[in-house]
Design a protein that fits this description.
Elements (H helix, E strand, L loop, with lengths): L2 H16 L12 E5 L5 E6 L4 E6 L6 E8 L3 E7 L12 E6 L5 E6 L5 E9 L5 E9 L1 H6 L8 E11 L5 E8 L4 E2 L20 E2 L11 E7 L4 E6 L4 E6 L4 H4 L15 E3 L16 E6 L10 E5 L9 E5 L3 E2 L2 E2 L14 E4 L9 E4 L5 E5 L4 E5 L5 E6 L7 E4 L1 H5 L4 E5 L3 E3 L4 E7 L6 E7 L4 E2 L5 E2 L5 E8 L4 E11 L7 E4 L2 E4 L4 E6 L2 E2 L7 E2 L5 E8 L12 E3 L13 E3 L6 E5 L8 E6 L4 E6 L3 E3 L6 E9 L2 E10 L2
Parallel strand pairs: 12-13, 30-36
Antiparallel strand pairs: 1-2, 1-28, 2-3, 4-5, 5-6, 6-7, 8-9, 9-10, 10-11, 14-15, 15-16, 16-17, 18-19, 19-20, 20-23, 21-22, 24-25, 25-26, 26-27, 29-31, 31-34, 32-33, 32-35, 35-36, 37-38, 38-41, 39-40, 39-42, 42-43, 44-45, 45-48, 46-47, 46-49, 49-50
Length: 640
């Protein structure tokens, strides 16, 4: 992307801040995803509150915290791993990808005595996953870093994991909070600065002197800015960091689009955490995220303010950061703007922990009051349009469209055999290209056929088009298949020409003797080798077979001499050369050799010695014609 395109992109973001997209008061989307903490199910429910789809997990893979859907219905979820060395609220240790049908396609573990995944994740457009992880620091580490307390501290890191196998992944990028600390209590230790407020890009290690002093719980990614936002429960802040860095740059204070490496680019919610004056907005914060650009207030940041609303109720705060290309404006020594949220929704309910919100493209807001299992949707005037309450804690809930979950509904109609012969049947097939529960309705042209089966059988008598309509009760899709009906050929007639049986002309033939197939007898003509009842079936150009012909009875296959002629033929059997003797009385004659299928293999005029060495071994018929009539016929055996 060039500088001009980037500049225009930021102008677009600014316009969104000033002129939000139009909003309307109606429900948005079809399905809400939620899962109950420490449970073995995840659910998609429709806007009537009816369960549309369920994922079921084993007891060893209970829901940890987050569950997200990727386009096409793949669930990306955190798992509460059993046997973690670290323990505490929101501890997970595992991440899974599970397809729509419930098959686990990736199961990744990141847990040890010194680190463990916890709380939220963020699936990325490239298929990788951003994950929050604790990172244990010893008391000695903490003291050397400038902590005023000699205690074990759980720091934080963010890793980006690229799936490489069923249970494996490469950490392709990482950021460590421990690389971006400051302190002003001990000049002999690491990270010393003379002023905390003059270094808002760094985290004051002494702001909270407890083991779990940060407690990240929400993470999101902005692909346009290539930045990450996280929320810190214990510091009551959200932070923005640069994701365009290398891992080495992320450990430093320079590099990346921002030029600031892995330092904090923007922080909001509690100015006292970096020594600035101003109002503390958050009273326990979760779910830091960007508002998508296709929504009103797109590009703004949002967070779940658990106890920060009126009367300590839960509030959703949306605020516009002072974005300046890839950085954020700040008068050093002051708090980051805005001084208060630009928009707030205060719920009538509250949850002291967890929870999330989602601003929808039509301006509605989905809210999840986690600990009471209460989910609801409000319009832009904050009127409640939809509610759902379940038993248990629901850390997060998200609304999706049907097409996002299942893909654009479509169906493909085909047939087991699209070209059939008159009187035959074929099976129609309707194949949904997206997962879901559907009904099917078939009709035909010409009219006369209907069916509610997905894959019915049909027996058309003429060319027919069959159309299926697939429906999920709200949406529908159509597809058609044409069935070609080829007519059967007329029953063949057998005639005898000399001692050769000949069939009515067709595309293919099969001869029978006494109701049994004669192997290899697939030509129009056939020379009978034994007495019996001969029949033939023919196949036309459409591939349709006739019925068996009438029987042609043969009873004189032993006759080899015609017209009382006594020619001598030798040697027989032969290895190729055959001599004909005693044929002098015929001045003009033709010698013809025919194979057992009736195919002419040799023809010469007035030759008393013929060479059959180019033919295959086997039985043949030699016939002599004079004055347009057959005067001699006998069998010969070729054995080279």
């Amino acid at each position: 992307m060039g500088k001009k395109e980037k500049f225009l992109g930021f102008i677009f973001l600014a316009i969104l801040y000033m002129y939000p997209l139009p909003i309307v008061a109606q429900q948005w989307g079809e399905y809400t995803l939620y899962s109950i903490s420490n449970s073995t199910n995840a659910y998609l429910i429709d806007t009537n509150g009816t369960t549309y789809h369920t994922w079921t997990f084993p007891s060893t893979a209970k829901t940890g915290y987050s569950s997200y859907l990727m386009p096409g219905g793949t669930l990306v979820r955190t798992v509460a791993k059993t046997g973690n060395s670290l323990s505490g609220g929101g501890m997970t240790g595992r991440v899974q990808k599970v397809d729509y049908n419930g098959t686990v396609i990736w199961d990744y573990t990141h847990s040890s005595a010194s680190y463990c995944l916890h709380h939220d994740i963020c699936p990325l457009p490239n298929g990788n996953v951003l994950m929050i992880s604790y990172e244990v620091k010893t008391a000695a580490n903490a003291t050397q870093a400038g902590s005023s307390q000699n205690i074990v501290m759980w720091s934080e890191k963010i890793i980006e994991v690229q799936p490489t196998g069923a249970t494996t992944g490469n950490i392709v990028w990482e950021w460590h909070l421990w690389d971006h600390l400051c302190q002003n209590v001990n000049s002999t230790k690491d990270n010393y600065v003379t002023s905390i407020v003059q270094n808002p890009q760094l985290i004051n290690i002494n702001y909270k002197n407890t083991k779990d002093w940060i407690h990240m719980n929400g993470i999101d990614y902005n692909a346009t800015l290539n930045q990450i936002v996280v929320s810190s429960h214990n510091l009551n802040e959200v932070w923005v960091i640069d994701h365009s860095t290398t891992t080495a740059e992320a450990a430093s204070h320079s590099g990346g689009n921002s030029g600031k490496g892995g330092d904090i680019l923007y922080r909001w919610g509690n100015p006292t955490a970096y020594g600035a004056s101003g109002t503390t907005i958050f009273n326990v914060v979760h779910d830091a995220h960007w508002i998508p650009y296709d929504c009103p207030r797109g590009g703004s940041l949002a967070a779940f303010n658990n106890k920060g609303g009126t009367g300590s109720k839960t509030a959703i705060d949306i605020f516009n950061p002072p974005l300046n290309v890839y950085n954020y404006d700040l008068i050093l020594g002051s708090a980051y703007t805005p001084s208060a949220s630009n928009w707030r929704h205060t719920s009538t309910s509250s949850t002291t922990n967890e929870g999330n919100s989602q601003l929808l493209p039509n301006g509605n807001l989905l809210v999840c009051i986690a600990m009471s299992g209460y989910m609801y949707e409000i319009d832009s005037n904050q009127n409640i349009l939809w509610t759902k309450t379940v038993t248990g804690t629901v850390a997060q809930a998200f609304r999706y469209t049907r097409d996002y979950v299942l893909g654009t509904m479509s169906v493909t109609a085909n047939a087991s055999n699209p070209a059939i012969c008159s009187g035959d049947s074929t099976q129609l097939n309707a194949t949904a290209t997206t997962a879901g529960t559907y009904t099917y309705s078939w009709t035909s042209n010409p009219a006369g056929f209907t069916s509610a089966l997905q894959n019915p059988f049909v027996t058309p008598t003429i060319n027919t088009t069959y159309t299926v309509t697939m429906s999920d009760g709200t949406n529908s899709a159509n597809s058609s298949v044409n069935i070609i009906v080829n007519q059967l050929p007329t029953t063949p007639v057998i005639t005898l020409i000399g001692n050769v049986l000949s069939s009515t002309s067709a595309a293919a033939y099969q001869w029978y003797l006494n109701n049994a197939i004669i192997p290899g007898a697939t030509s129009q003509n056939y020379i009978p080798l034994q007495n019996g009842n001969y029949q033939v079936i023919i196949t036309n150009a459409g591939g349709c077979k006739s019925t068996l012909s009438a029987v042609y009875a043969v009873s004189n296959t032993g006759i080899t001499m015609l017209q009382n002629q006594s020619f001598t033929l030798y040697p027989n059997p032969t290895d190729g050369i055959i001599n004909i003797k005693d044929i002098n009385e015929y001045n003009d004659f033709i010698v013809m050799v025919i194979d057992i299928t009736g195919k002419k293999c040799f023809e010469k005029a007035n030759e008393k010695q013929i060479d059959l060495s180019t033919l295959d071994n086997g039985m043949y018929f030699l016939e002599i014609f004079s004055q347009n009539r057959k005067v001699y016929s006998t069998k010969i055996s070729l054995n080279k």
